[in-house]
Amino acid sequence: CQDAGREADQCLPLKQRDRVIGVLDVQSVEVSAFTPEDIGILQILADQVAQAPLQTAGAAAAAAWMTLPAR
Questions:
Q1: Model-level pTM greater than 0.70?
Q2: DSSP 70
Q3: Quick one: which H or E segment has residue 34?
Q4: More confident residue, 19 or 58
């Protein structure tokens, strides 16, 4: 994931269940810019980004269900 001119690079997987759907690529011009705490926070962010499409789909399904006539 390293680009020219970047001194630090973290590539974090975007996973839905056991499937990688993308990568969050975070770069810095500073050497050793990312601490273990930074990487942990970035992984939490990557996990949330990966789940957003599922949550959106779930919300859309729930909204559609609410429009069904009562039985």
A1: no
A2: P
A3: none
A4: 19
